[in-house]
Amino acid sequence: MAGHRSNCIAQAMQLLRLPSSTSRVTVSRAPSHLRPPRTQTRTYATSEEAVSPAAPEIDFSTSSSRSPARIVPASPAYFSGSPRFIDHVLKLEKLQTKYSGLPTMEASEAPRMAWFKLAQFRDFVGEPVPTKKYKSLVKILQRLNRIQPAAVPAEVRSTLESFLRPGNPYAQQLAPPTVDESGRARGRGKRKESSAVVHLVEGEGEILVNGRSLVDVFKRVHDRESALWALRCTQRLDKYNAWINVRGGGVTGQAEAITLATARALLVHEPALKPVLRKAGVISVDARRVERKKPGHVKARKMPTWVKR
Amino acid sequence: MGKYNFTALRVRQTALSQFASGKTSKLPQWVDVVSEIPPAETITRTRPFQHQLVRQRLKTVEGSSKPRVVFEVQEKRIKPKKASRLFQPVEIKYEEDQLRREFFRDHPWELARPRVLLESTGKDFENYDWSRIQQPGKRLDGESVVQRQLYLLNTVPNMTKSEAYDQARQEFYRLRLKEDIERRVAAEEAEATGATFGPRHLDMGMEGENQQFERWKKWAQQAAQIIEQRKAALSGAPEIMEEQAVPLEETEEEAPAAAA
Amino acid sequence: MIVRQLAARQGRQFLALRRTPVASRFFSSEIPTPPPMEPVVDTPLPEAEPEKIIEEIVPVAPAEPGQASWKKEATHRHRFNRMGTSMKVAYNPDSLLQNPPKPSDITLELLLASQTHLGHSTSRWNPQNSRYIFGIREGVHIISLDVTAAYLRRAAKVVEEVAARGGLILFAGTRKGQKQSVVRAAELARGYHLFERWIPGSLTNGQQILGHCETKVVNALDEELPDFKADLADRPPLKPDLVVCLNPLENVVLLHECGLNNVPTIGIIDTDADPTRVTYPIPSNDDSLRATTLIAGILGRAGEAGQERRMAMAKEGKTTYEPITAQALRLDPFTGTAPGSEQAKKQN
Q1: Residues of chain A with pLDDT under 50
Q2: According to the 3-state scheme, what is the secondary structure of B201-235?
Q3: Quick check: is B153 in a domain?
Q4: pLDDT 10s digits, B123-165
């Protein structure tokens, strides 16, 4: 404090030297606790003659519109700690309620939009937004995106566009795989640690896995059956020959990697089989992998046995 | 500070002392607001409201033509209050409570009827006049009987509780019956002029049950047929199987024995 | 994937499939021709028959958007909604949000209809609230409505006066469903809202938590002055001048920090809350959304009146508060010295 006090005169001189674009405002009022108690009756917010009883009014000089009066938060959500994010949410919610009556379409038919990824969104607002809250915001965006294209108001369109990440990753569609000049369709599939590549040709049902016969490679009937389940459930076992390369993992993983690869190759030949194969469960990718072992655990989740002392 | 924390109540004093000691360079804007509108005392204990059950009755007095309004106050409790309970709030009692309890004890199914509890302005009671049991904007229900009974007790000379109850109830029953007849007549009229109300809930339920039964019957017939066909495939022609039903079973039993 | 289909493979469908002889080759490119495969006879479930499904995959034209029908419906609604009878006294749940009553509109009937009188079960009471309690009904404490009305008017007056002096008013209601009322009250009173968790330390450790939040310099008419943006860089974070808390029970930390920072508070005190936690208690039911919406709306209206008063005075060139000066803005907020004060020191 003492250091500050010693600066007082210097500070005053500095003030005089500062280019003062605005004129000084002089305040002449005593602190309220020194003034005699007031006897005016209290008024309600609505009463007409509710004049502020506190401070004597201060006359501004001519350029009052350019002189600062207060420092205030830029956003009404200032005290929440993430004002820009909350402003966005409130704005979107307002739009959602305003246009809730517009015709919508199915979520699957709505145009695919590349919203900000979480990290990008954090950069965009400049605040540490939690994942869950961002998900709730994306939910509102998706709902607004479901409004039928012909009915989308310009306001909604421009707002939605501000949440898109730069560039449009969904602009170019991947070319659908086709059968090559010698009639082969290629499909790849993964399961656990194994990956399989299947070349499918029209034929009489001959199947070679890594150059060997299926029975050689898979001793269990179950594995053989699951490897060819895509062909079996569509009754195409004797209509295609398959040349299969599979590597990595164990027997089950290899068999089921082949299932996926065969199904994908079959889809290249006959795209109309997709619902059947979907129902048979052979084109859904099983993304499960072995869970890592954690320190303090015996396996991924197993804890060591509790021993008293 | 002790037991209580009065920090929130002493904001003004704190602000002034901080300003006086130089901790803050300027007084906050609200200081004079708080001095004008001081916070209320919160900790002082006051005697709670004492609620007494008061009954208003009209009684005729011999010798005067006008009946007299009599207020009966429920007699005080003989047992005095404990000192520790002196500042505790007291139960709120009204005369209707007893009437309400009696009515709903006698008519428990009245409680099952839907009832609107929501009030938009809170001033619904201003439109009510209990000199008659029906009120504008209020559905006829048990509460109407209670209020009507109370009105009778308060305004009719020498009215007893059971008389008032009988009268209010009679009016109530008559109106309920009238409502019922009106509803039936309206339905009949509507049907006579071509309205259709569609099936009732009960009919819809029965219909659904029948459909499910038909579905099951179809499935069961198919399943039975399949079983028949399988059996026939095992043993050749079905007619033969039927004829040789008993011997076939015997041979089947013998076959594993022979194999063994 | 395989396990999921185990039932399908071991079940009746699989039997049926195995027994079906394959007649001839058949590709999906040949769809228009009648299915050459003989139908499976004894499969009761249709999904096991691929040929049947393929039959269903007829290229379907994209569904006609309901645009036209929706437009028709909207015009109908517009044309016919004004005809016929109209409900005049229908209850509109949003009316408290859209058009909240003013402090002068407070009546006991309104408070009663908004359920502000319902307290908690008698066993949960805080005896410090005994002066606000009217009595007991069915094991529940009933809050005295005239006390509620008096305290609510007093709180409204405080909000109005603080708003008229340009104070920052924070409306906090962190319970589920209070978001709309809090935002609306802040909008009316031109205050600030908090409907999610109060981050502990927002006042006591403000530089860390609110340091990155933007502030602005405004003139007496609340117009932003962008010239002073550079002076805001090293300012300490702002603190509210009044906090209105709709659920003090859950916001103990907020109220504690307000106490430490000497900020006056207004709070809805139910019969189980501690009334000494807030400067201005409003004894009322805090569990009914209708009650809290009513109270937030009334306080918002009071704030609106205060702001209007302030703006009217600002138009005449007067303020009821001490405005910050351009010089003060240019000073270092922590040391109170001007940017070039080293030279001044040397001169001394």
Answers
A1: 1-41, 43, 45-52, 59-62
A2: HHHHHHHHHHHHHHHHHHHHHHHHHHHHHHHHHHH
A3: yes
A4: 888 989 999 999 988 899 999 999 999 999 999 999 999 999 9
CA distance A188 to A130: 37
Which residues in chain B are closer than 8 Å to A1, comparing Cβ atoms?
A: 22
B120 within domain boundaries: yes
Give the residue on C whose Cα is nearest the Cα of A63.
C317
Kindly list the distances between the CA atom of residue B107 and the CA atoms of A269, B102, B259, C15, in Å, as whole numbers in the listed order: 75, 9, 79, 64
> What's the pLDDT at C107?
95
Domain residue spans of chain A = 81-161, 185-280
Question: In angstroms, rounded to a whole number, what is the distance separating the alpha carbons of residues B50 and C142?
Answer: 13
Which tens digits make up the pLDDT trace of A118-140?
Answer: 999 999 999 999 999 999 999 99
CB contact set of C317 (below 8 Å; sequence gap of 6+) = A59, A60, A64, C220
Gap between the Cα atoms of C164 and B234, Å rounded: 98
Q: Which amino acid is located at C85 in the chain?
A: T
| Confidence category of residue B256, pLDDT binned at 50, 70, 90 | very low
Q: Searching chain C, which residue's CA lies closest to the CA of residue B52? A: C135
**Domain containing B132: what range?**
90-192
- Mutating which of B3, B5, B7, B85 best tests the C interface, going by the most C Cβ atoms within 10 A? B7
Same domain for B183 and B237, yes or no, is: no
Which one of B26, B93, B120 would you mutate to disrupt binding with C, by most C Cβ within 10 Å of its Cβ?
B120
Distance of CA A1 to the CA centre of its chain: 51
Task: Pick A185-280's CATH classification: 1.10.10.10, 3.30.230.10, 2.60.40.10, 3.40.630.30.
Answer: 3.30.230.10
Chain C closest CA to A304's CA: distance in Å? 30
Q: What is the DSSP letter of B157?
A: B
List chain B residues with CB under 8 Å of C165.
29-30, 33
C227 → chain A, closest CA residue:
A66
Residue A99's Cα: distance from chain center in Å?
A: 23
CB contact (8 A) between residue A42 and residue B37: yes
Q: Can you give the C-alpha Rg of chain A in angstroms?
A: 36
- Specify whether B209 is located in the same domain as B138: no
Residue type, A52: S
Residues B31 and A32 sit within 8 Å (Cβ to Cβ): yes
Residue A180 phi, psi dihedral angles, 5° rounding = -80, 180
Q: Which domains does chain C have, with CATH numbers?
A: 23-56 (no CATH), 101-322 (3.40.50.10490)
C242-245 and C169-172 strand pairing: parallel
B–C CB contacts, 8 A cutoff, strictly below: 125
Supply the mean pLDDT for chain B.
87
* ipTM confidence: 0.76
Q: In this complex, is the C-beta atom of B36 within 8 Å of any C-beta atom belonging to chain A?
A: yes
| Residue B88 CB-density burial (10 A; 0-12 exposed, 13-18 middle, 19+ buried) | middle
Compare all CA atoms of chain B with the CA of C45 and give the residue at the minimum distance.
Answer: B219
CB < 8 Å from C in window 207-246 of B:
219, 222-223, 226, 229
**Which amino acid belongs to residue B78?**
I
| pLDDT value for B249 | 47
Q: Which residues pair with A242 in a beta bridge?
A: A200, A207
- Subunits with 3+ Cβ pairs within 8 Å of C are A, B
Strands C140-143, C118-121: pairing kind: antiparallel
Q: Which residues of C touch A21 (CB under 8 A)?
A: 326
Residue written as tokens 């003060």? C328
How much of chain C, in percent, has pLDDT values that exceed 70?
A: 76
